TrEMBL record:
Protein name as annotated: Uncharacterized protein
Species, as recorded: Gelidibacter maritimus
Taxonomy, superkingdom: Bacteria
InterPro entries linked to this entry: Integrin_alpha_N (IPR028994)
Length: 308
């Protein structure tokens, strides 16, 4: 690796200084150990390598948050591997800190790529710890799914109830959850929410777009299985209100509704379950049952819907 690349990064952070051979060997050994720990089996060892607060790909994170992000990476890509290209590492020192630059070669999910990478390492209580981790800003393909930005939705999902299914039809399990609005007040039956009353279905699979449901603030998800024979599971969204509940049936691959919303008047038609209002009744056919007001009385109406 050319020395000027190291200095280019260091100009912004430290200024280039030489490192004696003893220091370099110790730092190099630490970085090689850190690199070797980037597998699912060894990921627990990474926690010891970071300071309590880390500048991690441009964001300030705690050591616990960094470890959680590494775990998500290995869960998403169990075959993830990385190594230091040609074992070439450049080290410069400033005020007790070491800037380590190298080309990181990664492989995951059948993809291989190289990234100009860096660590800032310091000594604490006699052991090395990482203060900073990242890649050069001019690197190509920084939107790759191995970087933390791509896992922001996954971190949101990990803190909420998850619905599992194959929502894109690739034969692999996905999961979804709902980001609900913050209800700020309820006056005379009218609910107000911060930033508007709408809910968003989000998926861990980045190939699936978020689905926004306007006017929904309390909900429940259902896996409706494959209804239209495209190989992907459909997703059901219950919009729950004090006197009603409404089932939306979505094709997760494109976010479109497969039928009109199925509205149930829960004041009259109580304790109805999913099987009472919705069922698959043939190839590309579903039977739906909804509440309807006829001649001043609420009844249940059933119809067969043919899906495209």
């Amino acid at each position: 690796m050319k020395y000027f690349m190291s200095c280019l990064l260091v100009v912004l952070l430290f200024g280039c200084n030489e490192v004696n051979s003893k220091d370099e060997r110790a730092v190099r050994k630490f970085v090689e150990q850190w690199n070797d720990s980037h597998t699912e089996l060894k990921s627990a060892y990474l926690a010891r390598d970071y300071m309590d607060v880390v500048n991690y790909y441009g964001k300030q994170l705690s050591r616990v948050q960094v470890q959680r992000d590494k775990n998500l990476l290995f869960e998403q890509f169990p075959d993830y591997r990385q190594n230091i290209l040609n074992d070439e590492i450049d080290i410069t020192k400033e005020a007790g800190k070491y800037l380590v630059t190298f080309i990181k070669h990664v492989s995951y999910d059948g993809i291989e790529a190289d990234y100009e990478s860096y660590l800032t390492v310091t000594m604490k209580n006699g052991v090395f710890r990482i203060l900073r981790e990242g890649v050069a800003e001019h690197s190509d393909n920084l939107d790759a799914p191995i970087f933390p930005k791509a896992r922001e939705n996954i971190r949101i999902l990990s803190n909420r109830r998850q619905l599992f299914g194959d929502f894109d039809g690739d034969g692999l399990s996905d999961y979804a959850t709902v980001i609900s609005p913050e209800v700020t007040s309820t006056v005379d039956g009218t609910v107000e929410c911060a930033d508007g009353c709408h809910s968003v279905i989000v998926f861990n699979n980045k190939n699936l777009e978020d689905i926004v449901i306007e006017g929904a603030y309390q909900s429940q998800l259902e896996n409706l299985k494959d209804l239209n024979s495209d190989g992907a599971d459909e997703i059901g969204f219950w919009d729950i209100k004090p006197t009603s509940k409404t089932l939306y049936v979505f094709d997760a691959t494109n976010g479109k509704m497969l039928t009109e919303p199925i509205v149930i008047n829960t004041t009259v038609h109580k304790n109805l379950k999913l099987i009472d209002v919705f069922k698959k009744s043939g190839r590309n056919k579903i039977t739906v049952t909804r509440s309807a007001e006829v001649d001043g009385k609420w009844i249940l109406e059933t119809e067969v819907v043919v899906l495209d």
